[in-house]
């Protein structure tokens, strides 16, 4: 059974919510494995250093992560009143999203499956103490 009115339950649930600025990109047309190459390179780095890394990284996922970093930094400045110089990448991860299944015709009437994978990419910033 619930322990109170619906508004009270929501209030308690929102009180435990993570207050760190973040940005999330859903249904990105890049596989989790390829996105993680870029995310592993910036995890724990300062914001400006992370932006420099993804700017000159040739991978396609780096363009997506660069937009996410800029969005999370804007959220930190505008919503949480944080200083841009003190921000760093606290967490970043990619989760699997739905896979598009396509068929490639092969010899003698056979069909091979092609999996076009996508992912949900999340970047969470925090302020250095």
TrEMBL record:
* UniProt keyword annotation of Lipid metabolism present: no
Q: Which PROSITE patterns match?
A: RIBOSOMAL_L22
InterPro entries, per the entry: Ribosomal_uL22, Ribosomal_uL22_bac/chlpt-type, Ribosomal_uL22_bac/org-type, Ribosomal_uL22_CS, Ribosomal_uL22_sf
What GO terms fall under cellular component here?
A: cytosolic large ribosomal subunit
Gene3D superfamilies from the entry? Answer: Ribosomal protein L22/L17 (3.90.470.10)
Query: Which CDD domains does this UniProt record tie to the protein?
Result: Ribosomal_L22 (cd00336)
**What ranges does the record list as Basic and acidic residues composition bias?**
9-21
Region of interest (Disordered), ranges? 1-24
Which Pfam families does the entry link to?
Ribosomal_L22
Q: Which GO terms describe its biological process?
A: translation
Per UniProt, which keywords does this protein have?
A: Ribonucleoprotein, Ribosomal protein, RNA-binding, rRNA-binding
**Molecular function GO labels:** rRNA binding; structural constituent of ribosome
HAMAP family for the chain = Ribosomal_uL22_B
Q: Subunit notes for this chain?
A: Part of the 50S ribosomal subunit.
- What family does the database annotate? Belongs to the universal ribosomal protein uL22 family.
Reported function: This protein binds specifically to 23S rRNA; its binding is stimulated by other ribosomal proteins, e.g. L4, L17, and L20. It is important during the early stages of 50S assembly. It makes multiple contacts with different domains of the 23S rRNA in the assembled 50S subunit and ribosome.
> What is the protein name for this chain?
Large ribosomal subunit protein uL22
Organism of provenance: Oribacterium sinus F0268
């Amino acid at each position: 059974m619930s322990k109170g009115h619906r508004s009270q339950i929501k209030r308690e649930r929102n009180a435990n919510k993570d207050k760190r600025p973040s940005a999330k990109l859903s249904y990105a047309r890049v596989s989790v494995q390829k996105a993680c190459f870029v995310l592993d390179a910036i995890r724990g780095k300062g914001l400006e250093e992370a932006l420099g890394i993804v700017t000159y990284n040739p991978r396609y996922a780096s363009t997506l992560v660069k937009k996410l970093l800029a969005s999370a930094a804007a959220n930190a400045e505008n919503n949480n009143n944080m200083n841009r110089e003190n921000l760093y990448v606290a967490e970043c991860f990619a989760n699997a999203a739905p896979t598009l299944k396509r068929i490639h015709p092969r010899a003698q009437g056979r069909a091979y499956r092609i999996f076009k994978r996508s992912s949900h990419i999340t970047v969470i910033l925090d302020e250095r103490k």
